[in-house]
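Standup notes
- DV: blocked on the single-chain target, sequence here:
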Amino acid sequence: MAEIAPFRGLRYNQEMVPDLAQVVVPPYDVISPEEQRVFHERSPYNFIRLELGLPAPEDSSEDNPHTRAAAWIRQWKHQGILVRNPKPSIYCYEVDYKNGPELLKTRKGFICAMRLEEFFSGRVLPHEKTFQAIKDERLALMLACNANLSPVFALYPDSNEEIYSALASGRRGDPVVSFTDFAGMTHRIWPVTDTPVLHEVRKLTMDKPIFIADGHHRYETALNYRNAFRERYGSGNPHASFEFIMVYLTDMNDPGLTILPTHRLLRNLDEWDCGLLMQRAKNWFHIERFESENGGELRWKEAIRAGGSRKDTSIGFYCKGAACVYVLTAKRDVVSALIEQKGTPAPLRTLDVVVLDQVVLRDLLGLSDQFLANERNISFMHDFAEALDAVKSCRFDAGFFVNQTRIEQVREVASAGLIMPHKSTYFYPKVMSGLVTNPLSPDEEIF
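- DV (later): unblocked, structure below
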């Protein structure tokens, strides 16, 4: 069972910082070095100073981005820039955003504390692998600040929308947070403190599995933090704040939930023959060819999406300077049999990114693990037009364009205890850092 709870969040004091658009930031792992600099310059209270502080040449073990983040928290609390919520709350959170030029969507969810569970318990299920160096860096920051700075983004199944409806019934008046950020997204937050409502929401979530959508490194880091504090203070108090983590939860059936595709762009391919690649690909794929002019690209894009609508694996391909673009649609039984020979479990065999990685990139192109792990050789983009332009402008040798991983595939893979390849999902929009922070102390309890 998933055990959630209210907590006394630390939030920006809007009397001191009236425009939250100047201080909130995306999660650390999607911030580019240029954005990191821009956020630092935007406001002296920008959350980037906590989430991803700038390094300095003179950094030491006593003075570095992590220790400075802890110092900023102390200073901002002393100045009244950051203030604690007076009552334990679950934070009802809605975000309006555009998915495409015209389509306006609203994703509904809530921020709460959730008891940390080992993955083997089956109560909290991951779907992507993590990297030790990132976890080590995040743990150093967490130990310095003693806080969950940004929430893990997680999903739960609730076909009747009971949980969010129950929580929303406890909202009182206008949202305490309402602003439009630098990307044009509108955020609204209501702290819910009504005890019967909180008990009802807690009861409704007790039998729900939790699927991590975004924040696998943050979750595993919180487990390591908990274990370190258990060694220091003992594990006898199940309500100690370090036994919990701050999460943003949304219903995986919510119509506002969006997963973006992640296209693969390659460079440093040296000498290779596009025509020969397509000829070899016929063994495993049905090939469609489109002229890149006179509306051909539009029909090509529609053909890729049509394959996704049929739940086929349809991969778009374009190489720099070519007059044609291609769609490779997997011959389902043939490709599945090939991937099965590699020892890939059944829930992974139909993932577009697995077919692309194992069959196209490794078998057809012969690319090695070392090549594909090198960021100088491969890049990832979510916007179709931006990715296509990157190949057209000869910044890359070739581009492979995929449909988004479907939410039912995420559920199937995670439920089977399996892990997807890196960059398989991109849940959009990300949950902003700086909306609510969860302070952690061995002297505080969460119920």
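- Follow-up: The chain has 15 helices and 21 strands.
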